[in-house]
């Protein structure tokens, strides 16, 4: 059974750095041609893709947020970590991690999401 | 960046009726298009990938069509559990989502 679960702080202050962890089970982060993305959704708004990491450690970032994002993985812990620097109230959102299946690029499994609020 | 535009923003439909949702890409994405359903407080759920292939466990009343820049999601006979927000997403050039179509009860 494939599952993904996000964890991290519920509240961060402006200018702080956010660190989120996605813990996966039911598959390995080393499986060839698979990967995990981070996607966010501000309250009442649409989904926005942020970053992706493939099993071969190749990474990709949203053009608009690239300077603030870092994605990494620890295969032994089955975890994918996203850091976002210089947080602002507009970054308040539910953050999801999601998996792409082998050989494809759509998201077949999603975590439940974690709401992060940016406020002083 | 490929921009995905969905229409309409809101669709009011009676149970049992047909719903047709549209999604347009700013440039060709071939058939690299997925549809997701999202209910309040839940994560998105994959419905369709490859523009027209239903994901595992998705009822046959959901169908997708199109290629290139124009795509359609059709729900043939709306059930109560189908009232939700629907997003299209291209995965031809990294990933971008549309703004969503809310299907509400008429």
Short recap of the structure:
Chain A is mainly beta and 120 residues long. Chain A has strands at residues 3-7, 11-12, 18-25, 35-41, 48-54, 59-61, 69-74, 79-84, 93-100, 109-110, 114-118. The termini of chain A are far apart.
Can you describe what's shown?
The complex is a heterodimer of chains A (120) and B (106). Chain A is built from no helices and eleven strands. By secondary structure, chain A is mostly beta strands. In chain A, a hairpin with an 8-residue loop joins strand 9 (93-100) and strand 10. The relative contact order of chain A is 0.32. By secondary structure, chain B is mainly β. In chain B, 0% of the residues lie in helices and 50% in strands. Chain B is built from no helices and eleven strands. Chain B has strands at 4-7, 10-13, 19-25, 33-38, 45-49, 53-54, 62-67, 70-75, 85-90, 96-97, 101-105. In chain B, 37% of the residues are buried. The model of chain B has no long low-confidence stretch (mean pLDDT 97). Classes of the chains: A mainly beta (120), B mainly beta (106). The A-B interface holds A 37, 46-49, 52, 60, 63, 96, 104-108, 110-113 and B 1, 32, 34, 36, 43-46, 49, 55, 87, 89, 91, 94-100.
Q: What is the count of helical runs of chain B?
A: 0
* Secondary-structure class of chain A: mainly beta
Q: Determine the number of helices of chain A (DSSP H or I, runs of at least 4 residues).
A: 0
* Overall form of chain A: globular
**Into which percent range does the helicity of residues of chain A fall?**
under 10%
Percent helix range of chain B: under 10%
Low-confidence stretches of chain B: none
- Head-to-tail CA distance between termini of chain A: 39 Å
> Main sheet of chain A, how many strands, which sense, barrel?
7 strands, mixed
How many strand segments of chain A?
11
Percent strand of chain A: over 45%
Overall mean pLDDT of chain A stands at 96
**Head-to-tail CA distance between termini of chain B:** 35 Å
**Could you name the ranges of chain A where pLDDT drops below 50 across 5 or more consecutive residues?**
none
SSE series of chain A: EEEEEEEEEEE
What Rg of chain B, in angstroms, do the CA atoms define?
A: 13 Å
Write down the overall geometry of chain B: globular
Largest interface: A-B, 18 and 20 residues
Question: What class would the helix/strand composition of chain B place it in?
Answer: mainly beta
Largest sheet, strands/sense/barrel of chain B: 7 strands, mixed
């Amino acid at each position: 059974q494939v599952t993904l679960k996000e964890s991290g702080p519920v509240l961060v202050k402006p200018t702080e750095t956010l660190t989120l962890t996605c813990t996966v089970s039911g598959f390995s982060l080393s499986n060839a041609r698979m990967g995990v993305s981070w996607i966010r959704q501000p309250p009442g708004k649409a989904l926005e893709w942020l970053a992706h990491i493939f099993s071969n450690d190749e990474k990709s970032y949203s053009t608009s947020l690239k300077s603030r994002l870092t994605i990494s993985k620890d295969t032994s812990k089955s975890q994918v970590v996203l850091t976002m620097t210089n947080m602002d109230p507009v970054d308040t959102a539910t953050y999801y991690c999601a998996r792409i299946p082998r050989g494809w690029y759509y998201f077949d499994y999603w975590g439940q999401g974690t709401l992060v609020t940016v406020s002083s | 960046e490929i921009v995905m535009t969905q229409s309409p923003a809101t669709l009011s439909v009676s149970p049992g009726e047909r719903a047709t949702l549209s999604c347009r890409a700013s440039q060709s994405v071939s058939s690299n298009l997925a549809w997701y359903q999202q209910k309040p407080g839940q994560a998105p759920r994959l419905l369709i990938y490859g523009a027209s292939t239903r994901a595992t466990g998705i009822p046959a009343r959901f169908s997708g069509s199109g290629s290139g820049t124009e795509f359609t999601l059709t729900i043939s006979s709306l059930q109560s559990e189908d009232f939700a927000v629907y997003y299209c997403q291209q995965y031809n050039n990294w990933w971008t989502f549309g703004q969503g179509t809310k299907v509400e009860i008429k």
